Amino acid sequence: MARVLVIDDDRALLQALRVGLTLRGHEVIVAVAGEEGLSKVALEDPEIVILDLGLPDLDGLEVCHRIRQWSEVPIIVLSAIGLESRKVAALDGGANDYVTKPFGMAELEARIRTAIRDHRSDGTPKGDQLVVGELEFDLVHHQVMREGKPIELTAREFDLLAYLARHVGKVCTHQMILEHVWGPEYGTEAEYLRVYVYRLRRKLGDVGGHQLRTSPGIGYSLSAD
Amino acid sequence: MVIGLGAAMFPLRGHLSIATTALILVIPVVIAVAIGGVVAGVVATAAGFLVYDFIFIPPYNTLYVGAAENWVALGVYVIVTIVIAQVVARMNAARREARLRVAEVRRLFDLSELLVRESSMPDLLTTIVETVRRAFDLDSAALLLPVGEGLELVATSGAPLSELELHQVSVDRAVPVSLEAGVVRRGGIQAVALVASGRGIGLLALRGSGGASKDTELLRAFANHLALALERAELGEYAVRAQLLEEVDRLRRSLLGAVSHDLRTPLATIKVSASTLVESSAKVTGPDIRKLGELIVGQADRLERLVSNVLDMTRIQSGALELRRQPTAVADLVDEALSVLGSLAELERVQWQAPADLPLVDVDHVLICQVLANLIDNATRYAPGDTQVTISARRSQDGAVEVAVADRGPGVPANERTSIFQMFNRREAGGRGGLGLAIAQVFVEAHGQRIWIDESDGPGARFVFTLPLADASAGT
Fold it and tell me: N or C: fewer beta carbons within 10 Å in chain B?
């Protein structure tokens, strides 16, 4: 299915992931330190990187940042709970998603699949059109259509949805969204977002938040499903 | 003296004028007043008057005063001496007063110095009653502090007050006797309120014949000082308690954080392995099942170790765990530590070196095994897979055994070599550490020994700790 590079210093977890991912049809490459991981990203050309934030030689955030300097490979960050600030920093630094330890293989597999698919069908606009799942964005006329019918959105709601659509599948942090949609002088007013996301979900008919997903304490992402 | 002076001047009386004689005779009066006070002054004046009149004013040797100008001289002499006597006497009185004030100020000063020096509450209370009793020369002094609704005796000096006397002082249980009113007498007992910041904070009960009654002012000054000192001590105790609570809270939070982090790491492996077994059960093959099963068992062991370590650590820190020391061979400790870690496949990398004549150590072997296990676990996790982990032991110069666990991994930066042992050091933020090292430090320090990182010797981290020698083998 995919070439997965796992960078983690916990050898037990590496062994378990190697067995689990291989059984699910992935090709698994492992690295136990940051520098080793960086060189394997370059040499082995993985389709996705699973990166633990606690590494012996380099800070996981630093690894993330350095990968992003030359590669757009999707990165899923592994982290223990209670360190929301580091997850946010990793997402701001270019990671696509995060998984909190402990996690099951089904969850990891789902995130790997989403990250790879979204990366392939990268939400970069082709001309003035953008398609995410059933949603078609007309970026010139600021319109969103579903099955040919327009959805009524205010200008700010459209900007927010279009920003998430451009980064489909990627968790966008509160700060990223506020800065890009509201403007650089914003960044801490996460409560604005709650209101807008609530309205958007109602207009999209996405009551449970399956399409416009919440990452509690961190941010939001738009799924192509 | 007047007579002596008169005698001395007698041969010269023909040459001295009446006025000069009068001036000279003022001298003994002044001296008498200065030394003996007003009474001596009056006596000296009278004597001077007689000598002057009898010997120096013609006609000599009679009290009869002849010429009118002699009357004038005698009158002037008397007036001058009286005035001088009064002035000098007043000066003397003022000087005595000043000396008294100096003594009071000194007593107050001594008191405040004592109060500043004393730190613990019980010492302070004893100091207060002792000082008051001595300063006012009393039979007994007692200090009562409000406890709940009433007053409670907390310190006495001298003969203890009887129940009845105490009852008399603290008869108004709710509002201590005139806590606002300063000094009050009640049946032979003097009660002095200690008031600070407008709040009654205690009561001094004094009994004795000493000068306390006439030193009321000073007593109040004392009371003010004592009240302030008491208040300060109270606030100090509050501050210490608050600080302690804060510290306990911080430790508890960091322990929780560390435990939750360190529990999640093995849990992640267990969950990944178990979910693979469940979800891919159709595809999973024999060797994989075995591998995943081993991982689950190994990580479950790690969890178990962690939990019992944390329990032991909190017991040590709360003083509930006593060390069970016994003479033990270091080699046995290493063997046991390796068997504790037994299910980890990494252990083939571990090497053990020690001189054959290594003396026995006096340790709680369960705890020291955990120290070794944590250090070995740490080393095998952080050093690259193909490198060796070396455990060595040697006798140090200061009569202990030094055990070192060294790896060829990336090492520990100099600025982290102390903080790495702290519980709230999060491995997540890069570098190593975590609960294992914090626990190792607590266990080693419970033996009165120390643990540190020595990186003078080549690349990699070298964790060193000392163990006490067992007495029986100290000579070998």
Answer: C
| Model confidence pLDDT, tens digit, residues A9-40 | 888 899 999 999 999 889 999 998 888 899 99
**CA gyration radius for chain B?**
44
Any chain A CB within 8 A of the CB of B268? yes
Closest residue to A83, CB basis, from B266, B276, B428 = B428
Find the CB nearest A105 among B264, B279, B430: B279
Residues sharing a CB contact under 8 Å with residue B157, sequence separation 6 or more, in sequence order: B126, B129, B130, B132, B133, B140, B141, B142
Residues A137 and A195 both lie in one domain:
yes
DSSP bridge pairs for A214: A220
Tell if the CB–CB gap between A9 and B280 is shorter than 8 Å: no
- Say which residue, A199 or A56, is predicted with more confidence: A199
Question: Which of A91, A120, A149 is the last residue before a domain boundary?
Answer: A120
**Are A106 and A157 contained in the same domain?**
no
Contact check, Cβ <8 Å, B266/A12: yes
Q: Is B290 on the interface with A (CB under 8 A)?
A: no
CATH number for position A40: 3.40.50.2300
The beta strand positions in B159-273, using DSSP E, are 183-186, 189-196, 199-207
**Secondary element (H or E) of residue A46:** none
Q: What is the pTM of this model?
A: 0.58
Q: Smallest Cβ distance to A12: which of B299, B426, B427?
A: B299
Return residues 422-441 of B near A (CB < 8 Å).
426-432
Domains of chain B: residue spans and CATH = 2-97 (no CATH), 114-238 (3.30.450.40), 253-314 (1.10.287.130), 323-473 (3.30.565.10)
State which of A73, A92, A120 marks the end of a domain. Answer: A120
pLDDT at A189 over 80: no
> B107-161 pLDDT, tens per residue?
778 877 777 776 677 777 888 888 888 877 788 888 888 777 677 777 888 877 7
* Closest-CA residue to B381 (of B292, B302, B309): B302
Listed range (A217-221, B180-184, B447-451, B460-464) with the worst mean pLDDT: B180-184
Q: Is A84 on the interface with B (CB under 8 A)?
A: no
ipTM of the complex: 0.74
Are residues A19 and A98 both part of a single domain?
yes
How far does Cα B120 stand from its chain's mean position?
Answer: 6
Q: Provide the domain limits for residue A111.
A: 3-120
